[in-house]
Write a structure and sequence with these properties.
- The chain has 205 residues and is of the alpha+beta class.
- The chain has 2 domains: 1-61, no CATH class; 65-204, Roll (Nuclear Transport Factor 2, Chain: A).
- It has 5 helices and 6 strands, in the order H-E-E-H-H-H-H-E-E-E-E.
- It has a 4-stranded antiparallel β-sheet, covered by helices on one side.
- Helix 2 packs antiparallel against helix 3 (90-101).
- It is elongated.
């Protein structure tokens, strides 16, 4: 008679213990899930994504020194691209040269003024000439301050009856300045001058 109540009492204790273990397990699992969710949310909030051509690309923060040489070369290439890419359109010429002059000091402005006074840009428009440039290489002396560079490029002047290919070599110095919308790399070209600009090929069209 007493065996049955003892069995019921034992079964009740086992059920209670099992229920307690399940509840504690659920609480631990919920806490672990909540903690991981917060960690993941915090990590995602620290990341910046850039939308380029419809694709989300993660932007990584790096020390400027890690990318210094790449930025210097791109600044030099961008300046030359704007300064020497011309079309027979006054607005295109003004727009490109204005962008270039933000990246350099008065030495570039002097070259621009000299070209303008010699009717170089007027002749581009009158002759329906398109001018484009491609960079071959850039040599840098990064240990020097300001940084010395020598630019090697190839120019193409596309005329109605011919295509003239020229070799272009320039040199100058770079010093760091504040970044801005007009100068995203934060460098300024100083003492810029042309060392060579000679025809290397003339092709009739």
């Amino acid at each position: 008679m007493f065996t049955k109540p003892k069995n019921i009492d034992t079964a009740f204790r086992q059920i209670r213990l099992f229920t307690l273990v399940v509840i504690i397990g659920c609480l631990l699992f919920s806490g672990f899930t909540l903690y991981n969710s917060r960690q993941l949310t915090a990590e995602l909030q620290q990341k910046v994504y850039i939308l380029a051509n419809g694709k989300a690309l993660e932007a990584l923060a790096t020390d400027r020194r890690d990318n210094l040489e790449v930025e210097v070369k791109d600044h030099i290439a961008t300046f030359h691209r704007y300064f020497f890419t011309l079309d027979p359109d006054e607005k295109v010429i003004t727009s490109n040269t204005s962008k270039a002059l933000y990246l350099a000091d008065a030495s570039a402005k002097r070259q621009y003024d000299n070209l303008k006074e010699s009717n170089y840009y007027s002749n581009i428009i009158a002759g329906n000439i398109s001018q484009e440039i491609s960079m071959d290489s850039v040599s840098l002396e990064m240990q020097q301050s300001p940084t010395y560079f020598r630019y090697f490029g190839t120019q193409r002047l596309i005329r109605t009856g011919s295509i003239v290919t020229r070799s272009l070599v320039t040199e100058g110095y770079l010093r760091p300045v504040s970044r801005s919308e007009n100068n995203p790399h934060g460098f300024l070209i100083e003492g810029w001058k042309t060392l060579e600009n000679t025809d290397i090929n003339i092709q009739n069209r």
